[in-house]
Amino acid sequence: MSKQFDVVVIGGGPGGYIAAIRAAQLGFNVACIDEWKNAAGGPAPGGTCTNVGCIPSKALLQSSEHFEHATHHFAEHGISTGTVKMDVAKMVARKDTVVKQNNDGILYLFKKNKVSFFHGRGSFAGAKDGAYEVKVAGAAEEVLVAKQVIIATGSNARQLPGAEFDEDLILSNDGALRVGAVPKKLGVIGSGVIGLEMGSVWRRLGAEVTILEAMPTFMGAADEAVAKEALKVFTKQGLKIELGVKIGEVKKGKKSVTLSYANAKGEAQTLEVDKLIVSIGRVPNTVGLNPEAVGLQLDERGAIVVDAECKTNLPGVWAVGDVVRGPMLAHKAEEEGVAVAERIAGQHGHVNFGTIPWVIYTSPEIAWVGKTEQQLKAEGVAYKAGQFPFLANGRARALGDTTGFVKFLADAKTDEILGVHIIGPMASELISEAVVAMEFKASAEDIARICHAHPSLSEATKEAALAVDKRTLNF
C-alpha cells in the first residue's frame, strides 16, 4: 500500500536533507529517502559530503595538521614533545566518529521537524493523477506518492578508463579517506580540491606525494596570483606537482601501481606508487533513479536538465545540487534545496551563483568569491585591484602563519566589489565577509571604512580594501 506525502525528497545529502527540513518548516508533509549505510548497516544520511567528502576530509586534515605542528612547529613556541608518533588507525577512527555524529544529527533534525525518513534507494515507479510514485528499495519495499518530488541524488567520482577504482590500490575520495597506514609513495591524478587536500594529509604524515595534472596551468579556476602563490607554497612543503601531463597505461601489481605518462615536454615517464588517488572530477548520480518511468529529461553528461529555478521538464519535479548544472559544492546544493522548498510554497526562493564561495582546505587555506582577475580582463571590465600580505598582519605573525594574502577586485568606476581572493590562515572563515559585502553590492571603500577588531586576521581584509585606493596603513 502506498504512503501519501506532499513532498518526497530523493537523496539525503546537503541539498536533500536541507530541502526536506525547509519544506517541513513550511507546513508540508515530507518524506526523505536516502540509502547510505554506516558500518553496522544502519542509516547514514548526509550524502557524499558527510560520509566520504567534506566532513571526513576536514577531520583528517585537522589531525594531520596537528601532527605537522607537533613535529615541525611546536619547538619555536618553546614546546618540547620528544618522539611524536601517528596512530593512523586512531586518526581514522576519530574521523569515523565525527561522521557518525553528523549522521545522527541529521536523523535528529528529521525527527525534530517531523520529516519521515526512509532508508533505501529511491526510484521513479510511474505517474498518475498528477502525482508521482516513488519506490523505496530498502529492508522493506515502500511506495511513496507525492505531487512534488525533489531529486537530490548527488554525484559520483569520475573513473579514469583503465584505472577503475578498487578502493585498495586505486582510490576514489572514499578509499582515500580509509587508508589504514601511511603509504611510502602516494600518487594523485588531478590537482583539484580532493587531490590537494588528500595529498596534503598524507604528505604531512610522511608520504612522498606526486600530483599529476593534465592541464598546463595549476588551479585554473582560481585567480592567477593565488594559484601562483599556492604552487610555490605546496612545492616548498614537499608536494611534487607536475602539470601538462598525459596519462598512459596504469598497471596494478600486488602491492603497488605503476603509471606511464608523458610530462609537459612529451618525455616518457614512469611512476610507481603504493596507492593511487584518482581525482579527476565527479559525474551526476542518476544510477537507478529510473527517469524513463516518468519521462524525466537528462543531458549528455547524465545530469538532470533544469531551468534557473531548478524545475525539470516535469510539473512538480525539481532537482538540486550535484545532479544538476552549476558548481558541485555542498553549500550550493543547500541553497538550492531551500529555494526549491520555498518555491513549492509559492514563495520566491533565490540563489545567487555570483556569490557562492569556493574553499580549498589545505594549509594555507584558499578561498574566493566572485570574478578572478583573468575573468575580468577577458570580459573587458575596467577594474582596480588591491592586495595585502598576511606577513604584515599582527595576528598572523602571532599565529606563526604569515603565508599568503588577501586580494580585492573592484569596479574602476563604481568601486563595487567584483571579487575577493584569499590564500592564507583561516581563509575559509574570512571569505564570508566578502560574500556578505557582495550580496549587498558593497564597495571596497565600505569594507575599508568598517572597523575590524585588532589584532585579527580580518584586518588583512580591511587593508586589502584600502589597497584598492592605494592607501594601506600597515604595508
TrEMBL record:
What does the UniProt keyword field contain? Cytoplasm, FAD, Flavoprotein, NAD, Nucleotide-binding, Oxidoreductase, Redox-active center
The cross-references to SUPFAM superfamilies, in alphabetical order and at most eight, read: FAD/NAD(P)-binding domain, FAD/NAD-linked reductases, dimerisation (C-terminal) domain
Q: Where is the FAD/NAD(P)-binding domain?
A: 5-337
Disulfide bond positions: C49-C54
- Gene Ontology molecular-function annotations: dihydrolipoyl dehydrogenase (NADH) activity; flavin adenine dinucleotide binding
Q: Where does NAD(+) bind?
A: G190, S191, G192, V193, I194, G195, L196, E197, E213, G281
Q: Which cofactor does it need?
A: FAD
Reaction catalyzed:
N(6)-[(R)-dihydrolipoyl]-L-lysyl-[protein] + NAD(+) = N(6)-[(R)-lipoyl]-L-lysyl-[protein] + NADH + H(+)
User: Could you tell me which Pfam families the record lists for this protein?
Assistant: Pyr_redox_2, Pyr_redox_dim
List the EC numbers from the record.
Answer: 1.8.1.4
For this protein, the record's InterPro entries field holds:
Class-I_Pyr_Nuc-Dis_Oxidored (IPR050151), FAD/NAD-bd_sf (IPR036188), FAD/NAD-binding_dom (IPR023753), FAD/NAD-linked_Rdtase_dimer_sf (IPR016156), Lipoamide_DH (IPR006258), Pyr_nuc-diS_OxRdtase (IPR001100), Pyr_nucl-diS_OxRdtase_dimer (IPR004099)
Share an example GO biological-process annotation for this protein: 2-oxoglutarate metabolic process
Query: Which Gene3D superfamilies does this UniProt record tie to the protein?
Result: 3.30.390.30, FAD/NAD(P)-binding domain (3.50.50.60)
Q: How is the cofactor bound?
A: Binds 1 FAD per subunit.
* Predominant cellular place of this UniProt entry's protein: cytoplasm
Q: Which residues bind FAD?
A: K58, G122, T153, G154, S155, D322, M328, L329, A330, H331
- Which Gene Ontology cellular component terms are annotated? cytoplasm
Compartments (UniProt record): Cytoplasm
Q: Tell me the protein family, please.
A: Belongs to the class-I pyridine nucleotide-disulfide oxidoreductase family.
Which NCBIfam families has this protein been placed in?
lipoamide_DH
* Designated name of the protein: Dihydrolipoyl dehydrogenase
Lineage start:
Bacteria, Pseudomonadati, Pseudomonadota, Betaproteobacteria, Burkholderiales
